[in-house]
Each structure stands twice: as structure tokens, then as C-alpha cells.
Amino acid sequence: MTALTLSGPTEPPKEEPEVFEPPPAVITTPCDPWPRPYYLEDSLRKVRPYHFTYNTNCKQRWRGRELLDIFADEFRDRPQEYYRDAIVSGNVVLNGKKVSSVRHIVNNGDVISHTLHRHEPPVTAQPIGIVHEDDDMIVINKPAGVPVHPAGRYNYNSIVEIMRAERGHGWNPLPCNRLDRLTSGVMFIGKHPKAAEKLTDQIMARTVKKEYVARVIGEFPEGDVVCDQPVMQISPKLGLNRARASGKDARTVFKRMAYYPPMPRTNGIEQGDKVDERSEEEKLRDSKMAWKSKRGYSIVRCLPLTGRTHQLRVHLQFLGHPISNDPIYCNQRVFGPSLAAGDARSDDDEDIISKLSKMGKTEAAEAMEYHDEMMVEYNKKKAEKLTGERCAVCDTPLYSDPGPHELGIYLHARRYACQDGKWEYETPLPEWALPPPGVDGPTVTTEETDPMVLVDKDDTRTLNEGNSSTNGHVEQSKPLWTMPG
Fold first, then answer.
1. pTM score
2. Which residue of 70, 207, 219, 385 has the fewest CB atoms within a 10 Å radius of its CB?
3. Is position 351 annotated as part of the catalytic site?
4. Rounded to 5°, angle at Cα 280 from 275 and 283
């Protein structure tokens, strides 16, 4: 007979504590110079070279890619050979450790650190204008050519760092809206997180109206012009965007403020006369350039109803009236004689990227504003490009200073207004939007040329939804002209 053995209650298995991976190691920047190493020279704000470490989290598009491939594809200010040497020497590390090969695969969660002798490009020495300031917010008039945040080749030469240098190391400016580096105009800087968050939410919710002014080639159509071509990013590395049916929805209302025909080039002809003074050789040359038929320039007021990157620049190019000194979208060497007017195809993207990638390296970027001017050779010499010289400390190829024509484009954020009328801030027209000397033209904006008149609360919702019907102010204004497509 088998004995029955009784045992006590069975204890549940012990749970092992969850082990969390420590965060990846990063490299500390070798130095953080204060005061910032600024100096002013030739109307430029310059920064003396200094050692610096970039720490970058792995982006989604980098996952599963080789380390050298990421640097070669994403960063264009240095040649691939530099990045290869930096990885091999340990100036580029992953999670704080040197990798065994330039072909090392980067994974989600990795941190790439890159220590280098940093050379920042100069920016304009023009001060940051103050439009309004209170306890919560500073409204500034951003100079053209200065990036908002540290990015790419720019760090201390950015709006955030220049304002920090002016107000103290511990002060943290909080931008609420963004402007391209080459664009000037109204920007909001929060003094504390709550104020910055409140205005940023308003802008993201599209309850803030924004008006820009641009100077474009040719005689822009009169009346209310609406462009609703979707916009797609073609090359993150080059900052290139184009009109594409498969892009993100984008919509802009344009209204011409003034048109200025070309000025006569010889004495004895009254201003405004449209006498063709070109030689036969010039006429033959111009006949091969579609943009040459667009003589003179227009000042156009622009109301973006969406906020895509380069939206205004891309839409104006698509309409056949690009910003006249835009080094990307008004560049015949890149886009050909038509400057991509009405072009929404995608079969030439690789060719466009290849041509654009040469600009600022072996060739100076050259917008049509300067194509046939007597200053062309001077501007080419003054343009920012590789000089052939190298830094004595780090052997980095050196760039020349940018020319005055490269410090900005003719695009200015003139006015921001709360949709319910609680606040509105604006700047005067920039100098390039005023009439030429001796020519009559508007020096201030008027309601007749105001694109915001088209859009009240109901109109904004209708246009943003892409509804083709029009109502309210649109029907009562001049005929609406929408670019096909």
C-alpha cells in the first residue's frame, strides 16, 4: 500500500525583474565657447572655427543602412572621403564607440556622434528687428539668410543662438513658427514654454493667417490667382521640393500688387518706353529662353492656406513666375529654359538633383535675376563656392564668403494675423518691394491688393478642404483664376 504524501501549498514562480538597456553613450561637445566667437567683417557676421560634436539619433530612413552610406547621402558640405576617414579614425562613432567598418549597419535607437573642427558660413550682419515684445513673446523681423535653428553647417549663426548671445547664456528662445533660411520677415519667439505652445497650437490649427510678399519675374496676372498643386519633397539633402500630383495637398492665393516693366538701357529714352534695344545676337539668345519673354518683374502678395516646405517658391515656379533671385527654383542651369513652368512630371528628378548638387561647390548658384546683368561675372566671383584652399587645423576644404545676392531671396513674411481678430503684427515692405527710383508705385499695402480679403472663416475652411466651389469674397472680387491640375 502506497503512502500518501501531503505537501504544503505550491509557491508561484518568482518573476524576474525587467532589465532595461541603458541609453546609448554619447560624446560631449569638447567646448561651448562663451561669449560666442562672433566677429563682424564686410557687413557679415562671422564665426571663428571651433571644435564641436554632433549627436544625432537614428532617423527612420537610416535604419538598416550602412554608416558611410548615410553620411554620403545625407550630408553634402564635405566629400565622401572625409566621412570615410572620420569613421576609420574614430571622429565618427556609434553609441560612443568606434565601429569596426564603414559598412557598419545603423539600427533604431542608435546615436551617431561626429566630432569635427567646425567652420560656419557667414550670415548678414543686419540686426534682428523687434516688432513687438511683452512678458510672453517677442515678435521679430528676421533678416534674410539666417537660419532659425542650428542645422547643417549653421550653429551659432542662427536666430536662436544670436538672440541667446544678446540676452544671456541661460536664456532659451522658443520659435513658434518657421521661415526658410533665405526668407525674411515676421517670426514669433516665445519667452517661456506655455506661451510658445499656445501660439504654436494656433498656427498648427490654421487659425492664423499669414501673408508674404514676393518679387517674381515677368508680368504676373491681375486678379485673384489660386494654385493648388500638391508639393513633394524630392531631395532632403538638397532641400528640393517640386509640384507633384502624389505630393501633399498645398494651396496658395496670390494677388499682384505692382508690375514694373524693364527699364531702358540707354540715355535719351523716357522711362516706361518699351523700345526693344537688344542686338540681333541678344534676340537670338533670348528666343531660346522661355523665361526671357517675361520681361520686368512683379510684386505679388501671397496667402498660403497650407504650410508645406518651400510651398510659395514651388507654386510661383509652377505658375511660370518664380522668385527672381531664387537660386534653386529660378535657376536655368538646373531647370532649363522654361524654368519648369507648369511642370508636374517626375521623369527628370535625377537630372535636376545632379545639376543642383553642383551648385555652391564647383559652380556658383545663379538665379535669373543675375543672368544677363553686367554684374554677372562679379557675382560669380563673389558667390560662395569651394576656393581650393584647406584649413590648416583639420584639412577641410574652405568656402569663399557668400555674395550679397546669396544672403536672401525676394520673399518676405510681412504679416501674421489671428483669425478672430485678437492680434495682428506686420512689418513695412522690404526695400526690394518698393518702386524703383523715379518710378511711381505702391509703397504700402492696400485692401485692393490684399489676398486676406478673399478668405474669412468660412472661405478658409472651404479652400483648405480643396472644394472647387467659391463663395463670399471670392465671387465678389476679380475673376478667380486657378492653375489647371
1. 0.76
2. 207
3. no
4. 70
Residue range 88-143, pLDDT digits in tens: 999 999 999 999 999 999 999 999 999 989 999 999 999 999 999 999 999 999 99
CA 403 to chain centroid, in Å, comes to 18
What kind and span of H or E run contains 357?
Answer: helix 349-358
- Concatenate the DSSP letters of all residues of 272-325 into one string: T-------HHHHHHHHT-GGGGS-SEEEEEEEESS--TTHHHHHHHHTT--BTT
Strand pairing report for 480-482 and 424-426: unpaired
Q: Which of 77, 134, 135, 180 is catalytic?
A: 180
How many residues are recorded in the chain?
Answer: 485
Largest Cα separation within the chain, whole Å, is 134
Query: What's the pLDDT tens digit per position in 176-222?
Result: 998 989 999 999 999 999 999 999 998 888 889 999 999 999 999 99
| Phi-psi region at 310: left, alpha or beta (left = phi > 0; alpha = psi -120 to 50) | left
The pLDDT tens digits for 348-376 are 788 888 888 776 544 444 554 544 443 34
How many C-beta neighbours within 10 Å does residue 393 have?
A: 10
Q: Which residues pair with 445 in a beta bridge?
A: none
Identity of the amino acid at 73: D
DSSP for 194-216 reads HHHHHHHHHHHTT-EEEEEEEEE
- DSSP 8-state symbol, 154: B
| Phi, psi of 246, deg, nearest 5 | -90, 10
